[in-house]
């Protein structure tokens, strides 16, 4: 069975998530933006075998610790979509701009595309390409657990910013409605910041993407 634990990291309180198969205790970490010692402490506490890094997108608060973690533990980096290559290239500059520890450059082991899957232990998650916040943003979805890790595409009561380079508001709205809503109203999503919510709740109450808006 699929399990997860969300741990806020960095000064931006970014929701980094450990995800694992409770049959094998094999685990991946989604968006290790920083605070690696805290993350690894949770891995040890839970008795997990951390084997992969999964990235939704390459903004500093989501990807800043990726290069160091991959180097330290020899982990493959899965994602995001190659549309975020320029954000990866700019991580050292991003870290200076926002006062983060120096970010190591990295090369993803595998780029992700819409319709791909990722696997950890006995658990398989679906990948959806959801551009708009960044051009290479992806989302990870577990149909069995009815959970989706959506990065900065959608928040409880809000949506991701589109004023960064290559962001686009109309594209983001289309990603939410065409890629997220079909996962079902009862699916719980874990956003990149803030509390969890359900797609059904956001379809009713989110002022940016509610039905009829």
Automatic annotation (TrEMBL):
Name of this protein: Hydroxyacylglutathione hydrolase GloC
Highest rank taxon of the organism: Bacteria
Stretch list, region Disordered: 192-213
Annotated SUPFAM superfamilies: Metallo-hydrolase/oxidoreductase
Species: Rhodoferax lithotrophicus
Keyword Metal-binding included in the entry's annotation: yes
Cofactor: Zn(2+)
Keyword list, A-Z: Hydrolase, Metal-binding, Zinc
């Amino acid at each position: 069975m699929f399990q997860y634990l969300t741990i806020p990291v960095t000064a931006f309180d970014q929701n980094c998530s450990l995800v694992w198969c409770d049959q094998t205790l094999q685990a991946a970490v989604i968006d290790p933006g920083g605070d690696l010692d805290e993350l690894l402490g949770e891995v040890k506490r839970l008795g997990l075998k951390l084997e992969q890094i999964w990235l939704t997108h390459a903004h500093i608060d989501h990807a800043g610790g990726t290069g160091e973690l991959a180097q330290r533990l020899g982990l493959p980096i899965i994602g995001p979509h190659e549309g975020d290559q320029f954000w990866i290239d700019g991580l050292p500059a991003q870290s200076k701009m926002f006062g983060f520890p120096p970010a190591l450059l990295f090369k993803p082991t595998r780029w992700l595309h819409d319709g791909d899957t990722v696997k950890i232990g006995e658990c398989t998650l679906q990948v959806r390409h959801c551009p708009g916040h960044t051009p290479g943003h992806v989302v990870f979805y577990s149909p069995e657990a009815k959970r989706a890790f959506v990065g900065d595409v959608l928040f409880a009561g809000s949506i991701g910013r589109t004023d960064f380079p290559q962001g686009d508001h109309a594209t983001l709205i289309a990603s939410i409605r065409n890629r997220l809503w079909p996962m079902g109203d009862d699916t719980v999503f874990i956003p990149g910041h803030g509390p969890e919510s359900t797609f059904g709740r956001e379809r009713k109450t989110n002022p940016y993407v509610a039905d009829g808006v």
